[in-house]
Write a structure and sequence with these properties.
Layout lengths: L1 H19 L47 H10 L1 H36 L24 E3 L17 E5 L6 H10 L7 E5 L10 H10 L3 E2 L3 H13 L14 H12 L2 H9 L3 E4 L17 E4 L15 H6 L2 E3 L5 E2 L9 E3 H13 L12 H8 L5 H14 L5 E5 L8 E2 L3 E3 L9 E8 L4 E7 L5
Parallel strand pairs: 1-5, 2-3, 3-4, 6-10, 10-12
Antiparallel strand pairs: 2-13, 5-6, 7-8, 7-9, 11-12, 13-14
Helix pairs in contact: 6-7, 11-12
Keywords: Membrane, Transmembrane, Transmembrane helix
GO biological process, one term: polyphosphate catabolic process
GO molecular function, one term: phosphatase activity
């Protein structure tokens, strides 16, 4: 009975499934067909590119996430990329500012200084430099016994004392010498010229200089007086002619009446330039208050790279500026060309170039050494070899320090390669001394002056 009921239930179940069209969860067939791994249906785009009439393959396919526009969009949205671009922009701005504010002006200044030395420039390095007439000694070397640390000063106790324009201010001169404890037995006094005129006591200043054995280069006032004496002393000073009635001429005539023969001999004996060799005990080191190189004392200035014997005497006693393109000097601070620079700026640039060992091979040929170099060149390999060896030795130029006065408008100017000591004493400024010891150390001492103008 129970068996019969079970068979009836089975038949009813089959009949109901047939009526509802219900199919089994898995159709009949091999089991491998029922596996649903994703890799079996994965189709690679590269291997099987899509096809269609509207499809055009390229790097700017917006449907492709790896295309150029989509990658660029993601890159721009990246915070890291924006920071990097901001840094690059900042570096560009800094580089532009450095070029405009520092590099470009320095390069322009370097060229402005250099172009006057080149042979291609008209009158470059003072192309008209051919010395000139000078009634007196052009170049004098200091006596070896007076050199600090020299043959007569093994212990290095001697000093050199350089003094700016005194202009007849005897009282201030004595005050200054007292301030530096000047001792004629160990100190040597050197004046930068213009020791006379304008002030109250020119004969008294000359007497003091003669008494202490001082030397002085000739300034423009001494030179004018020496030249004036050639005519004034041979005429009646009380009755000047129409050609001798200028204010300067009258002052020269009055001063000549006060001067004695010893004064005139001292003035005429003043050299145009005084040369001092490097101090034996001075060690070379940088600094504007240390001197270990040769010293050239002049009244007004020098044209750099031009040999001393080819310097124009008038400008050595009168120059204040120099044209940086032609190197033609001027007695004025500014000229109409607009190219004027203080002569000591060009001088300092040139000496610094020599000190750093920079080449001057392309500069003008002026010195005897360079002339001799051309004479020793011979044909053949031996002559060329000898010439190249000697060429390096002859082209070795050493920097020099210029000590000068004359330019009271610029005042005290202390640089490494130039020392300007005229500080306008006669006009109520100060009288300046620079004391140099045997080891090259310098000290600047000044005293106040009364205005005598």
């Amino acid at each position: 009975m129970e068996k019969q009921e079970a068979e009836d239930d089975l038949r009813r179940s089959r009949s109901e499934r047939h009526r509802l069209h219900i199919t089994p969860a898995h159709p009949p067939g091999p089991l491998i067909d029922r596996v649903t791994n994703g890799w079996r249906g994965d189709v690679k785009t590269a291997a099987n590119p899509p096809t269609g009439d509207d499809y055009e393959p390229g790097i700017c396919d917006f449907e492709d996430e790896g295309s150029c526009p989509n990658v660029s969009r993601d890159l721009v949205r990246s915070r890291r990329f924006r920071r990097m671009m901001a840094l690059v922009l900042l570096l560009l701005l800094v580089a532009y500012y450095a070029w405009q504010a520092y590099l470009r002006p320095r390069l322009q200044q370097e060229w402005n200084f250099k172009e006057g030395f080149l042979p291609g420039r008209v009158n470059g390095t003072y192309g008209i430099a051919r010395a000139g007439d000078f009634d007196g000694t052009t170049i004098r070397d200091i006596h070896p016994d007076l050199l600090p640390g020299g043959v007569a000063d093994h212990q290095g106790k001697r000093r050199l004392v350089f003094i700016g324009d005194i202009h007849g201010c005897r009282k201030e001169l004595l005050h200054l010498l007292h301030s530096i404890d000047f001792d004629p037995t160990t100190d040597h006094l050197i004046a930068t010229g213009d020791v006379i005129s304008k002030g109250p006591n020119s004969p008294g200043v000359l007497d003091e200089l003669i008494k202490v054995g001082a030397e002085s280069v000739r300034g423009n006032h001494e030179d004018r007086l020496v030249e004036a004496a050639k005519t004034l002393l041979s005429t009646d000073l009380q009755a000047p002619s129409a050609a001798t009635t200028s204010k300067g001429y009258a002052k020269d005539a009055a001063l000549l009446k006060e001067l004695k023969p010893r004064h005139m001999r001292y003035l005429h004996d003043m050299p145009l330039m005084l040369r001092i060799p490097a101090l034996p005990l001075a060690k070379k080191r940088k600094g504007k208050h240390h001197i270990a190189e040769d010293i050239i004392v002049v009244h007004a200035g020098l044209v750099p790279h031009v040999p001393l014997d080819r310097q124009d005497p008038y400008f050595v006693m009168n120059m204040r500026s120099i044209d940086h393109k032609t190197h033609v000097p001027s007695a004025l601070h500014e000229t109409k060309t607009g190219n004027s620079k203080p002569w000591f700026d060009v001088w300092n640039w040139y000496q610094d170039r020599l000190d750093r060992g920079r080449s001057v091979g392309g500069f003008h040929v002026y010195s005897y050494a360079e002339w001799l170099e051309k004479q020793i060149q011979e044909d053949g390999w031996f002559g060329k070899l000898r010439g190249s060896v000697l060429s390096k030795a002859l082209r070795k130029l050493n920097p020099q320090v210029a000590v000068y006065g004359h330019d009271s408008k610029m005042g005290l100017q202390v640089h490494r390669w130039s020392k300007g000591l005229d500080s306008g004493c006669v006009s109520g400024g100060r009288l300046t001394a620079m004391v140099l010891d045997a080891r090259g150390e310098t000290e600047v001492v000044q005293v106040g002056c009364k205005n005598y103008r």
